[in-house]
Sequence to fold (131 residues):
Amino acid sequence: MAGEIGGLTRGLALDLSQPETIAAALRDVHAVDYLVITAIKQGVNSLADFDIAAAVESVTIKLVGYTETVRALHDRFTPGASVVLFGGLATERPYPGSTTVASFNSGITGLVKTLAVEIAPIASMRSTRAW
Fold:
């Protein structure tokens, strides 16, 4: 699908449930203009039938995996680079069985806010140096 966008767009598949492998998997990426992470691994996980292993895997993918991907690539972001992280509406509209999904989607909102603070100075410094 990335090929449909054209240009130098690349699509990469990573196992975000194994965050310790992410940096090595991205070593051949040299410059990043746009980073879009669309990981989906969810299932029904209600309080009554809480599956700890499924919850840990989902949270690892969405919070730890997303964070590690951005961390591994941030020094290769070009000036003006953008990062898009997908969460979901379960944060605002939880439904029966969305205990884990609603929780980690709320965490993505917090992650985006802190990444904006941590990444912004890097982008600003790079664009200042480019002048």
In short: The first strand starts at residue 32 and ends at 37. The longest helix spans residues 99-130. The chain has a mean pLDDT of 85. The CA atoms of residues 24 and 101 lie 28 Å apart.
